[in-house]
Amino acid sequence: MLTKRDDYNWASEAFDHEGPAYLDSITFNVLEEDSARQGALEAGQVDSVHFVQPSEEQRLIDDGFNVIYGEYLGTPINFVLRPNAEITNDVNVRQAIQHGVNRQEIVDTVFNSNWKPATSSVQAATPGWVDLSENLAFDQDLSSTLLDESGWTEKDAEGYRVKDGTRLTIPAYTSPFVNGSGQILELAAQQLKAVGIELEIRQTDASTYSDIFAAGGTPIFPVANSFLDATTLRQYWGQDYTNQFQLKNGELEEQLLGVSETANGTDERAANLAKLQETVLEEAYTVPIVDNYQVFVTSPEVHGIETNAVGRPYFYDTWIGQ
């Protein structure tokens, strides 16, 4: 529980009032299941929840609830494709996956009209973002050509590609930290089957995800990152940090340094960040899916919740009333 400070009087000018917060206290409840959170909200047991299934958002809006989309700086919901894993160590296979996924269909099916397909390896709200939609075009013919070039020319009775007696099967792991990751992967698996790729979806939870994420050779998993400045990409993608792509030979280090060592808002930073976005897509280290939001749903009586640059809520101006 958080309680307000009665003597607080140094709020930023960005807020709508001065002095103490309107709310006397905030109590946080941990409800891990989406259905449990939504049920508690609809039953009036809580005033606000963080995340519901995207398919439920419009119905809640229609029922009078407030759905707040906290747009943030960072990377979209994307599939990381690791080049050190079996099968995805072939750039042609990675590119075939990239062009075999129909982002618009995923948005239309899993999400709703308030969400937009990703257009680059960083979110559209990020300073220095470059629209690389053409590099991500849904093109099953191109995917098929790329797989043919890598020797995946035969197909088995189920329509999956085969090389040297081995089916083109790639494990793909869900993430408890990416909203709708299971549904996204299931639809992507259907789309990729059309070009002969089998995604073998494996479930994770909060207790197992970190170990699977860190394991060498985990080929595909959904992720979304937030940051206040693009220099933070080095913490996610750099070899001396999280190294999400598990690169080993300094493939991105020079470009990441080029972004982190230049000032935000300069032409040099913009050029370096544009090149980094292009390289990550050309090498198909990632398949951007949908620009992400931090989603909060409140009862009709809750007013004044705002979000910051990474989509986190401010409750200072929040009040409850008719």
Automatic annotation (TrEMBL):
Q: List the coiled-coil residues.
A: none
Domain of life according to the entry: Bacteria
Report the Pfam families cross-referenced here: SBP_bac_5
**GO MF assignments:** peptide transmembrane transporter activity
- Please name the InterPro entries in this protein's record: SBP_5, SBP_5_dom
Q: What biological processes does GO assign it?
A: peptide transport
User: Where is each Solute-binding protein family domain found?
Assistant: 2-230
Mind telling me what this protein is named?
ABC-type transport system substrate-binding protein
